[in-house]
Design a protein that fits this description.
By secondary structure, this protein is of the alpha/beta class. The chain has helices at 44-54, 74-82; strands at 4-13, 19-27, 32-39, 63-66, 86-87. Strands 3-2-1-4-5 form a 5-stranded mixed beta sheet, with helices on one face. Strand 1 (4-13) and strand 2 (19-27) form a beta hairpin. Helix 1 (44-54) runs parallel beside helix 2 (74-82). The two termini are 18 Å apart.
Length: 88
Amino acid sequence: MMLIGEWVFDRVPTITMKVLFVFVVLEHDRRKVLHFNVTEHPTGAWTAQQIVEAFADREAAGYLIRDRDSSDNAEVRLRIKSLGTRKF
């Protein structure tokens, strides 16, 4: 069975009025969390590294559903392509 993954960014306000960005990769079939991380300033390079880490110890997703935000740049697309994953 082909794994379908999903990545989302959620904004989380802190008690000190900062905003943190939570990056989560889910297995779409069972909604299982495969990987998550938190940053104050998500960049394309950081997002690309999270994609690699999400699939470091498992088979890469055949398809990856993603948010369309500013962190989805050429570097992220290249990393996804290098894993053999299609995105939509």
